[in-house]
Amino acid sequence: MGNMLVWSRKEPGSLEECDSTWGSETEEERTAEDADLEEPCSKHDQNEDKTETPIKPKRSFYAARDLYMYRHGYPRSSKKKPMYTNLHFYMNKITLKPDGIFISEILTEWKGDYDKLEHKHTYIQWLFPLREPGLNWHAEELTAEEIKEFLSTEMATSNYLQVYEIMLDFFGIKLEDRITGKVTRAENWKERFQHLNGSRHNYLRITRILKSLGEFKYEKFQFNLVHLLLREVLVERTLANMAHSALEYFVFTIKKRSDRRRLLRFAQRHYRPPENFIWGPPAKPVIKAPSSPSKRQTSQQERAPSHTAPGAGEGPAGEAHADTAVAMATAPTVEGPSKPPAGHSDSETTGKGEGIVSKDGDRSTEGEAEEKEEVEKKEEKEKKEKEQKEEKEEEEKEAEEEEEEKEAEKEEEKEEKEEEEMKEEKKEKKKEKKKEQKEEKEKKEKEEKEEEKEVEEEEKEEKKEEEEKEKEEEAEAPDSPNHEAQEL
């Protein structure tokens, strides 16, 4: 069943390892990336209550791992030589199996035959080949060599785009531009969208089509198709049942991180309820700034007691209490007990539990808040630097792995080449040996013929001699006419 895969890259073990979409995004990148995806809200966005999904979705590790391996080019080592089966099919040289149908028949007879496209299940693996096995074990997986050859063959690429248009029409979509891959609704979109919204098995076909587009370097086609589907799902609400497949699978067939981010931010703006959107960037910690001294003073003034303690205004004690009241009204406070001014008892300075904080105490509190803020900023900076460092290490690791893969491929190619050369050498030797044997046989046959010829000539000579001898004997015999004539 096609090529056996041998993974040279370590498979990811968690969702975080599978998805690096938000790894190194900056605000500048975000603004630039989203410039062309800002759209006015649809009338459906104004009626959010009817479109909310109360159940929060969950990410699938198996889906994420599958798409991670796809985006990284199926790291593998295959010693099987490419057969170019998919290319030969697209060049109308062979039929798809097991149905025995040529690509020419599909291009001329299948467009608009929605029953056939819906109910047949063996054609999709041939029309949109991948570097992984499918349900039709007759179909061959792609190879990197075959992809290069396919893209350099005009007939194959032209037929591929025609097939893409047939499938888009089946879904209710039209390809407007063969260069950019721009798509729009087809004329019969209502009927086809209604069918597509209720046929979830076609979402698997769309995922395969998107993967195949990526394998054949049609990244713009991928992006435009996913964007249209997200808009129909989240803005127009015509394909509401497709929401999970579009966000969990379709978006992650796109290899370029910035394009995935653009699509996911577009989806996040229109997803309802927004708190259930699980594909967005990780939440950043919020740092609360400490309140300013003026605000704390205002707050303290509002809390200051309005009553006058006994004896206020009478003699030194009254003056001291009045000073204390003024201090309570003007000094900033912090939570917790505070020390009374010198010369005053606790009962005189605190009133009904209201504490007084000195200016030095206030400065100390401000200093602690500022210090805390600095620590949080420092921690945030260190965290960001750590993330950037990890991202850089991951990229370097990926680059090293890719380099190792390339080296391994080169070694394999070298081994294959040497093996081919050895085979050719053996073949040549065998050919030479056969030639020598043939020549020897021909020589032997020639010698045998010459011998036979010599024998025949000798026999002829002997026969001739015998005949001449017989004639001589007859002439010399006494009763022969010649003898009688001689005597007369």
From TrEMBL:
Residues 291-303 have a biased composition (Polar residues). Residues 40-53, 345-366, 374-391, 434-447 have a biased composition (Basic and acidic residues). GO terms for cellular component: membrane. Residues 1-53, 275-488 are annotated as: Disordered. One of its GO terms (molecular function) is opioid growth factor receptor activity. Residues 83-283 form the Opioid growth factor receptor (OGFr) conserved domain. Residues 317-333 have a biased composition (Low complexity). Residues 14-39, 392-422, 448-477 have a biased composition (Acidic residues). Belongs to the opioid growth factor receptor family. PANTHER family: OPIOID GROWTH FACTOR RECEPTOR OGFR ZETA-TYPE OPIOID RECEPTOR (PTHR14015), OPIOID GROWTH FACTOR RECEPTOR-LIKE PROTEIN 1 (PTHR14015:SF0). This is Opioid growth factor receptor (OGFr) conserved domain-containing protein. It comes from Callorhinchus milii.
